[in-house]
């Protein structure tokens, strides 16, 4: 049975194209790992298993027999091309896929935010999931290593488990965070380029210092403060990339000094576990910071938006309109302010219930939003009352928009909470300024529009009335 993907909805490729692309990606990753393999031993850096895990999470169709067979064949082909014996390749590939499947079983039910490394405990979830997956992989890969390299069982298990876990913590956060790259520009991203790059430059400086110090134990953590600074300054994806690059470089450099071979098994295992634990620090901070930022964003949104209709609340509308009118006044531009009222709304609540009234308000709000320009400001300022600010607009266009809103609601197909047909109309009052002056406050324009609204109701409702433009 296909499991729903926890990632953002993506265009799902055709099955044949998906199998081909996934197989090529795994084959290429396996070739990279093989090229970094010390002569006659396991690879120092092995990205293929983590790519398989993320592919399984994003495209659960690959968990079917044909998908697993294609991934299996990609591993084996890379091994055979580079001279590994068939039986040894079959053992290693079984271990690799077993670990990826174990990680998939644990992570597939986690929330979307956690699988994009944006949850408060995302790094810990990945830490424990990758640890369990590495153990499952080592349960097969360890004995195979004993047979292939003449190790003791303890050495085989320890080398496989620590290597796999370290690789997972270096790569998985980056691969999982890829779908969460935002296009929105935040206030933090509008900082000057110099300030924006300071945390990354600090990482580079401390890393250079660590290599200048030489092969000292403490040099391994020189860049940790700068990585934590990155976690508090950048998006989770950027932090994951910087962290991955730093520690992949460390692993490759240290492997040439220490020698990731069976003779140094305890030193290598200790170093790998140390790097794995160090990776948890900046990734945990980045995830917690992303969760806090998202929470603050939701709180700000809720403080300025009406919970029923999702348009601006009275407070949000007033704040946004004050800012807009202040700018328009400074520029000497025009503006129109509309007061809108749903006619006989009380009858809807009395005759059909408050649930029907709430549904009508939501539906009308959606119609109004769709009918206005992107730069217009719409807010719900009372029970059935709305207000709109139309910036930089001619009097003719403003009155045309007001009449169009009346027509849109008049011809709208609304329903009660019981799905019975429901009719609605709108009365609108409009105040207009050809060139805003310092005395044209939002409150004054709303009062003027409100007087015009009363005239619209006196004329029989379902119409728009405006004052003489000034």
TrEMBL record:
It comes from the Bacteria. The chain crosses the membrane at residues 18-36, 42-59, 66-82, 88-107, 119-140, 160-181, 193-213, 244-263, 269-291. Residues 333-469 form the GGDEF domain. It is an enzyme of class 2 (transferase). Its EC number is 2.7.7.65. InterPro entries: Diguanylate_Cyclase, GGDEF_dom, Nucleotide_cyclase, Rev_trsase/Diguanyl_cyclase. This is diguanylate cyclase. It comes from Comamonas piscis.
């Amino acid at each position: 049975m296909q499991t729903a993907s926890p990632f953002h909805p993506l265009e799902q490729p055709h099955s044949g194209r998906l199998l081909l692309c996934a197989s090529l990606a795994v084959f290429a990753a396996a070739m990279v790992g093989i090229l970094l393999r010390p002569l006659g031993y396991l690879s120092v850096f092995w990205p293929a298993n983590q790519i398989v895990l993320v592919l399984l999470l994003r495209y659960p169709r690959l968990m079917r027999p044909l998908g697993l067979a294609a991934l299996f064949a990609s591993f084996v082909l890379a091994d055979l091309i580079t001279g590994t014996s068939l039986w040894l390749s079959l053992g290693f590939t079984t271990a690799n896929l077993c670990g990826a499947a174990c990680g998939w079983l644990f992570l597939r039910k986690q929330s979307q935010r956690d699988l994009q490394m944006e949850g408060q405990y995302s790094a810990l979830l990945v830490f424990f999931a990758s640890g369990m997956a590495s153990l499952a992989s080592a349960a097969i890969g360890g004995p195979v290593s004993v047979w292939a390299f003449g190790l003791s069982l303890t050495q085989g298990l320890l080398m496989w488990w620590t290597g796999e876990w370290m690789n997972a913590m270096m790569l998985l956060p980056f691969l999982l965070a890829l779908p969460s790259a935002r296009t929105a520009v935040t206030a933090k991203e509008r900082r000057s380029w110099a300030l924006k790059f300071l945390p990354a430059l600090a990482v580079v400086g401390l890393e250079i210092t660590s290599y200048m110090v030489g092969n000292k134990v403490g040099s391994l953590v020189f860049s940790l403060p700068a990585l934590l600074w990155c976690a508090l300054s950048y998006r989770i994806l950027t932090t994951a990339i910087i962290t991955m690059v730093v520690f992949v470089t460390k692993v490759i450099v240290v492997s040439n000094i220490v020698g990731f071979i069976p003779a140094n098994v305890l030193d290598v295992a200790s170093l790998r576990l140390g790097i794995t634990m160090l990776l948890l620090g900046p990734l945990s901070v980045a995830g917690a910071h992303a969760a806090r930022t998202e929470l603050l964003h939701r709180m700000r949104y809720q403080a300025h938006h009406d919970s029923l209709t999702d348009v601006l609340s009275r407070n949000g509308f007033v704040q946004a309109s004050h800012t807009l009118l202040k700018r328009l006044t400074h520029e000497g531009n025009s503006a129109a302010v509309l007061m809108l009222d749903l006619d006989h709304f009380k009858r809807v609540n009395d005759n059909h219930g408050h649930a029907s009234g709430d549904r009508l308000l939501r539906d009308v709000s959606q119609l109004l939003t769709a009918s206005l320009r992107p730069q217009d400001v719409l807010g719900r300022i009372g029970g059935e009352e709305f207000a709109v600010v139309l910036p930089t607009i001619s009097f003719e266009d403003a009155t045309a928009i007001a009449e169009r809103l009346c027509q849109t609601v008049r011809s709208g197909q609304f329903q009660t909470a019981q799905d019975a047909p429901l009719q609605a109309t709108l009365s609108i009052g409009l105040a207009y300024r050809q060139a805003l002056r310092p005395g044209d406050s939002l409150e004054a324009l709303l009062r003027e529009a409100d007087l015009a609204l009363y005239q619209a109701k006196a004329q029989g409702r379902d119409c728009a009335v405006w004052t003489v433009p000034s």
